[in-house]
Design goal:
alpha/beta
Length: 343
């Protein structure tokens, strides 16, 4: 939008469009749509017949007009930011996030994606002294159920139960209550399930943990799956670009009371800045410098993920399919610490 402030016979007017003629001064105010505060850029042009005094008065008048129009807009934007922060601070998960005001060092969870309970237990024993926990996904849970989770817990490692719950609020609440009673560390839901579903999930996590006499798990929401690219997002009817969609679902999740989100490392820096230092950022789809990307389309190395702000790093096949899983895990931990690792 282009607005012209015209000075004619030393009377200041606001009008739309271009003006021409002698004895006319125009101050062009350019609305920058790419700025979140719509900061004006001011340009001046004088025609023949104006005195120096006219010129100075026009400049001063234009500055006064810009202050009157745009300063309230800046103040309104600042108030909106404060209100959003206050809303996040009053959500059900805010007390836990405040208690975690000093974030822990980034943690490594190994994704054990198998239906074979014996193999899963063997891997957990191999990695117990190296990784910070193990992730058990949908295929493991469908094959082995709660008993399988308890069997892995015998090794003493925290469990990240990656169920990606996504259903109507009542159904998700029932599943979450049962899962939270198992005493696991983290459980996932889909952020695209909507606010009502997310609120039901966090309330059910509280109830399930209380019924099981265990600490409530941290509940995190999937933003955009790391297997999806821009064209995949459009194909399922979601609005891109990918970082924008991740941010929308992250905002919804935190406002709904969740502890954090699951995101690609490519969105981690954006979401860390957006959500603050205490929101839990879980980053899967990581591949060390020496590993193949396989079916992950948006991959980053573990070292990069740490630098981008990830709290929980999830690595699966580079560890579980390695000739020596324990050695692979050690190399990833070294990379997370910033140590040189050969390809």
């Amino acid at each position: 939008m282009f607005s012209f402030i015209t000075l004619r016979d030393r009377r200041l007017e606001l009008s739309m469009g271009a003006h021409a003629g002698n004895n006319l001064f125009c101050l062009l105010v350019v609305q920058r749509s790419d700025s979140p505060l719509h900061t004006p850029a001011l340009f001046t042009a004088a025609s023949n017949g104006f005195s120096v005094q006219d010129f100075i008065e026009a400049i001063l008048g234009g500055i006064l007009f810009a202050l009157l129009v745009f300063w309230p807009r800046r103040a309104a934007a600042a108030r909106a930011a404060e209100e959003q922060a206050a809303t996040l601070d009053q959500t059900p998960g805010s007390a836990i996030r405040r208690a975690m005001a000093t974030p822990a060092a980034p943690r490594l969870y190994c994704a054990i994606d198998t239906v074979d309970l014996a193999q899963a237990r063997h891997l957990a024993r191999q990695l117990g002294a190296i990784v910070d926990g193990v992730k058990l996904g949908l295929e493991f849970f469908v094959a082995n159920g709660p008993a399988g989770v308890r069997a892995i817990q015998e090794n003493g490692l925290p469990i990240f139960l990656d169920l990606k719950l996504h259903d109507i609020p009542n159904t998700v609440a029932g599943g979450m209550k049962a899962a939270a009673a198992l005493g696991v560390a983290i459980i996932t839901v889909h952020g695209s399930g909507g606010g009502a579903m997310l609120r039901a999930a966090i309330e059910a996590a509280d109830a399930g943990a209380a019924s099981g006499g265990v600490t409530r798990p941290q509940v995190v929401a999937i933003t955009v799956l790391t297997s999806l690219a821009e064209d995949d997002l459009a194909a399922v009817g979601q609005q891109g670009p990918l970082p924008d969609q991740a941010q929308r679902l992250a905002d919804l999740s935190l406002v709904s009371g969740l502890d954090g989100v699951v995101c690609s490392a490519r969105e981690a820096a954006l979401l860390r800045k957006r959500l603050g230092p205490t929101a839990l950022l879980v980053v899967p789809g990581l591949r060390p410098v020496w590993a193949d990307a396989q079916d992950q389309k948006r991959v980053v190395t573990p070292g990069d993920a740490v630098r981008l702000g990830a709290d929980v790093l999830v690595v699966g096949r580079p560890i579980t399919t390695a000739r020596d899983p324990a050695d692979a895990a050690r190399r990833i931990v070294a990379e997370m610490r910033g140590e040189a690792v050969s390809a």
